[in-house]
Amino acid sequence: MFDRVAPWVLRVAWASLPFTAGPVFADALDSRESLLRTGASVALWAVWGITLIAMMVPFDKTLTAIRVLVPVSIPAVVFAATQGDSNGGLVALALAVAVFATFIVLTAPIGDLFINGNSYGDEWRSPLKPPGPVLVAPLPLAWVATAAGLFVGPLVLLAEQWVLGAIVTVVGFGLAALGIRALHVLTQRWAVFVPAGMVIHDGFALAEPMLFRRRDIRILRAAPAETPVTDLTVGALGLALEVVLEDPVEVARPVRGEPATNERIGGFMFSPTRPGKTVTTAQARKLTP
User: Fold this and answer.
1) Which has the closest alpha carbon to 139: 200, 187, 196, 210?
2) Cα distance between residue 111 and residue 172, in whole Å
3) How far apart are CA 267 and CA 247, in angstroms?
4) What DSSP letter does each residue of 79-134 carry, written as one string?
5) Handedness of CA 174, 179, 185, 187 (dihedral sign)
6) pTM score
7) Any long-range contacts for 48-52 (C-beta under 8 Å, 24+ apart)?
8) pLDDT tens column, 226-282
9) Which of 181, 283, 267 is nearest to 224 (CA)?
């Protein structure tokens, strides 16, 4: 049920922002210079419109875009509230909508929908959880660098600080490009069920996508605590699934700064964002008993 309604809940929440957060931004900009007021208004409408359009087009690239842009609404509302004297209740409502939209955009059903938006033929992609170590600092820092890089420089330019604004914009856009690339790499990690079997598409765990043929898969289940199979979860948190193979196969494992190394494995663990749905789908496709 939530799978079907989540995209529309997200779109409605985001579409309501001009009515909830709009007055807060208008109050913050009301006393500003004409250039800053007009430029910031145009930028706010542009970001809102681009994000809403991206929500209507479910692809992996648009997933990265909305997961960068939607959370920006939270610090934007907070900052705007400090620059004006909007009613506290209105600010609370605007902040609640921004937090709610951010929560929804980060949920697994939204990831499922967008990741599968550009899948091919009879395949189903199961997004993988981010590596655990990435969650501690690299992921938040990449998002901060991306968001700040996109917006701080233009705001400085609108404040008519031309030299400083130009420098900050050039540097910021460069940081944003690096941040978007890093965040999109995390988006492009999935297990794929295809007619021939199952593919692990994860550059952190394997040097290249690897097909495990249907006839080679003996078991796909929740991983026991002491499973001896190879860990391809790259430290992801939460429940992992285990695939036990009929016979060992050779895979290429990435090694930072060095050529990939070949390794024979008799099974592996991986961490989809929705392990229950992944097992159910595998059973429906007769990949596992």
Assistant:
1) 187
2) 27
3) 9
4) HHHHHS---HHHHHHHHHHHHHHHHHHTSHHHHHHHHGGG--SS-EEEEBPPPHHH
5) negative
6) 0.94
7) 48/14, 48/17, 48/18, 51/14, 52/11, 52/14, 52/15
8) 899 999 999 999 999 999 999 999 999 998 777 889 999 999 999 999 999 999 999
9) 267
